[in-house]
Every structure is written in structure tokens, then in C-alpha cells.
User: Which sequence fits this backbone?
């Protein structure tokens, strides 16, 4: 069996935790690359009352696809709890820091937005990992 697909519980501690740390770093990097750091809405034009978000559809789709790929990989190799911690926690933490560090908070609704996106991300990671687990070899 390919060494990249052996369940992590069957590997030595150093490669096991190094793989988990690398996965968390990749999840965090995907967030930083795909979404802008400052998520506050901005006026469309000077003096306009209509606001627009700096988040693009392409960035959101790319982030979703990369996190689903990571969740599938770790779903094959690791337990669901570890997959959730490795793949969903870094983007959630970065989103929290991004939303909470603004000098002026947008109507103080950011905790609800953070909780919603964290829940949606965690459920997506768990579903992708659970589906990937069905393709795991029974010989391992």
C-alpha cells in the first residue's frame, strides 16, 4: 500500500504529527490565499449607500474545493476528530482573528457570521471526511 495512504494511527508519532501540522498549515494557507484579510463591506462608489464585499466567488469556490480535498485526504488517513481539527480549525481561527481585529466592528454582527461560517465549514469537512472513509482499504 502506498505510504501516503496508510492510516496515520499506524505510523510513528513524528510522521503522524508532522502530517497533521502540514495539513493544518495547508488549510490556513488556503484561507489566506483565497480570502482577503479585511472582510469589512465597502461602498460600491464614493458616496454610495450600497455596499459590496471584498470576498470574490472565485476565492470562495477555490477555498471550498481546497478544504474539501484536504478533508477527503485526512478522512482517508485519520480519525474524524483529527480531520476536523486539522482542516476546519485553522480557517475558523483565521476568520475569527480577521473579523475581531477591525478597529470598528460592522454592527457587531461578526460573532454570528463567524459562528455560522464555522458551523458550515465544520459540517462540510465532516461530510467530506466521512464520504472519503468509505473508500478506505479494508486491508489497512
Assistant:
Amino acid at each position: 500500500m502506498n505510504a501516503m495512504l496508510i492510516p496515520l494511527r499506524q505510523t510513528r508519532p513524528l510522521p503522524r504529527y508532522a502530517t497533521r501540522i502540514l495539513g493544518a498549515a495547508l488549510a490556513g494557507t488556503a484561507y489566506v490565499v483565497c480570502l482577503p484579510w479585511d472582510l469589512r463591506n465597502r461602498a460600491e462608489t464614493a458616496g454610495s449607500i450600497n455596499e459590496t464585499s471584498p470576498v470574490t466567488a472565485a476565492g470562495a469556490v477555490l477555498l471550498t474545493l481546497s478544504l474539501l480535498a484536504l478533508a477527503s485526504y485526512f478522512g482517508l488517513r485519520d480519525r474524524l476528530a483529527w480531520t476536523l481539527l486539522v482542516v476546519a480549525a485553522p480557517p475558523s481561527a483565521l476568520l475569527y482573528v480577521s473579523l475581531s481585529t477591525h478597529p470598528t466592528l460592522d454592527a457587531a454582527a461578526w460573532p454570528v457570521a463567524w459562528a455560522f461560517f464555522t458551523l458550515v465549514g465544520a459540517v462540510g469537512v465532516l461530510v467530506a471526511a466521512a464520504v472519503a472513509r468509505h473508500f478506505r482499504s479494508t486491508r489497512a
Q: What stands out?
A: The chain has four helices and two strands. The first strand starts at residue 42 and ends at 43. Helices lie at 13-34, 57-77, 80-100, 110-133.
